[in-house]
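Protocol step 4 of 6.
Sequence for Nuclease associated modular domain-containing protein (marine sediment metagenome) entered exactly as in the expression construct, tag removed. Do not edit the line below.
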Amino acid sequence: MPAPKDFDKKKLWKERLSKAKIGEKNPNFGKTGKKHPWFGKHHSQATKDKLNKALKGKKKPFTQEHRDNLTKA
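Step 5 output, structure tokens:
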């Protein structure tokens, strides 16, 4: 179901969806440690190289300028 275009309805819609996923109903609830699907696994060197190549040249999310603007706000 797409989000409503009306701002007030959208806010209510987001709150309702958020409440629906709280606690044990959350798909990731309890998936920590040994229960987590990636527990004990590691990326191969080839995969690490692929990720490294994909992320090269991308800007970091919080530049110094951005942090300065956040402190001013």
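Step 6, annotate. The chain is about 45% helix and 0% strand.
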